[in-house]
Amino acid sequence: MKTITLTLAFIGLIFQSFSQDCVFYCPVKEGTKTETKHYNAKDKIQSTDKQTILSKKVTGKDVSVTVKSESYDDKEKLQFSKDLTFECKNGVFFFDMQNFIDPKTMEGFKDMQVKMTATNLEIPASPSAGNALPDGNIQINVSNQGITMMNMTIKIYNRKVEALEKLTTPAGTFDCMKITYDVETKMMFKIQSKGVEWIAKEVGVVRSENYDSKGKLIDYSVLSFIK
Question: By the 8 A CB rule, do 156 and 181 touch?
């Protein structure tokens, strides 16, 4: 299974003119484009994600944004394209956990019954170093004529703002909050991993790193372009 990261969840720009309370960690300005490159532990490029802001919707103080996300392999061949939804409600930024599911994984179940339940991830408007953040999870059940074909659970927990620090990537230098978290994936068996992300309020994720349960680097991603 493709390593689960949160990189698709937070790439983007802040947009506060809608509401004094709403701070976004995803793109909201229509036409904004971002690019994130993914590398393995040996610095070999594995894939590239490209996002484009399609639309935004304002309802009172609440804002939702639709983002077109495209994933390319290491040879720049398009693997899949899908629309992501980001929301800010009552001053809290939300990310739908269903966005973590690789569309290619679900293609094999298109003629079956798929049930998803989730507790979405959130980031408050003004996080500080030391803040604990709420967990997120998603449960997926796939059945065919009443027979269960697959049960999968993804849990993201122990989320914490470790520090506030600057980070430089090819896209620029950013003031970031460093967030750490644990990931537990259950399907045929359980997989434990750990993640670190550097997130800038006016940009989103500028770098992420994924580690196995023993602390060995698996892969990482870097924001390479934003315009």
Answer: yes
Percent of the chain clearing pLDDT 90 (strictly above): 47
pLDDT in tens, 54-73: 998 888 878 888 999 999 99
pLDDT of residue 99: 65
**CATH number of the structural domain spanning residue 202:** 2.40.360.20
Question: Which stretches does DSSP call E strand in 170-212?
Answer: 172-186, 190-200, 204-212
Gap between the Cα atoms of 223 and 210, Å rounded: 15
How far is it, in rounded angstroms, from Cα 205 to Cα 26? Answer: 9
Confidence check: pLDDT of 96 > 80:
no
Number of domains the chain contains: 1
Rounded to 5°, angle at Cα 134 from 131 and 135: 130
Burial of 128 (0-12, 13-18, 19+ CB in 10 A): exposed
Domain assignment present for residue 153? The answer is no
The stretch 74-99 carries a mean pLDDT of 84
Kindly state whether residue 133 falls inside one of the protein's structural domains.
no
Average pLDDT over residues 26-53: 92
In a domain, 207, yes or no: yes
E-assigned strand segments in the chain: 33-40, 45-59, 62-73, 78-89, 92-95, 113-119, 121-124, 132-133, 136-144, 147-169, 172-186, 190-200, 204-212, 217-226
Structural domain boundaries enclosing 54: 7-105+120-125+164-180+197-226
Please state the pTM of the whole predicted model.
0.81
Q: Is 112 a member of any domain?
A: no
